[in-house]
Amino acid sequence: MSYLEELVRGKRYLNRWLRYRLAAPRVPNLKRLFLGRNVVVVGSAPFSTKVHGWDDSFRVLTINASQVAAEGWLTRPPDVTLMQFNQIEGPNAAAVEVRRVLQHAKTGLLCVLNWRHELDRLLRGLDAFDYRYDDLMLISRHERIALMHRMTGRLNLELEGEGKWSNGIVGAALAINSGAANVILTGIDPLSKGHKYNSLNLSRMHRETDLLALQIFAEQRLPVFTADPHVAQSTNLALWPLKHAVGLNGHAV
After folding, report:
1. Average pLDDT score over residue span 210-233
2. Residue by residue, what is the 3-state secondary structure of the chain?
């Protein structure tokens, strides 16, 4: 990186840091849904697993169109869905595919990340592919940054797309910050390529940042697990269940 490029990047960082500090964002949480619960966070990696011990007491958080990837075992609409803003009207192939597979689907609480337009425009966009929800919540970029800062100790101002945390990792952090008893990841594999619900075989971004987050969760002994054996092997994330994992009744799972 040249001196000029470093100077421009430094100016961008300072500008974004100042805006972040002035915004003084709240750290989002969903304690009303997740407190004391086992929460399954479902991503869209090509391979996912039905969680051991699965029953209706578990809460489910899906990412973008991953509820379709889990339809073989997900017997009801997810409790929460995190959807990136560009999925609503983005023209790129991935966003178009998300809207196609989610047409006429439903979730409980829809959390839209980083929406920058008026609310009516968002509602029209969701109506266009008939995606239904019981409640709607907006999470700004600053709120997402504050959440990940709290849960990882790293202030990531998201200057570059590749350096951001993925929405699957954000979902895990949101569940932890909401007091989940255990957070079980499935279909979240930083080392994978492609998505379960399409054949575009797109490369997965955020590989290094996501691996770092999983390492931090493990070092902090947070109750974060994976249900996918190959992910446990490749990332050293604990495989669900472990004898020390706590169930809803307070007994080991």
Report:
1. 93
2. CCHHHHHHHHHHHHHHHHHHHHHCCCCCCCHHHHCCCEEEEECCCCCCCCCCCCCCCCEEEEECCHHHHCCCCCCCCCCEEEEECHHHHCCCHHHHHHHHHCCCCEEEEEEEECCCCCHHHHHHHHHHCCCEEEEEEEECHHHHHHHHHHHHCCCCCCCCHHHCCCHHHHHHHHHHHCCCCEEEEECCCCCCECCCCCCCCCECCCHHHHHHHHHHHHHCCCCEEECCHHHHHHHCCCECCCCCCECCCCCEC
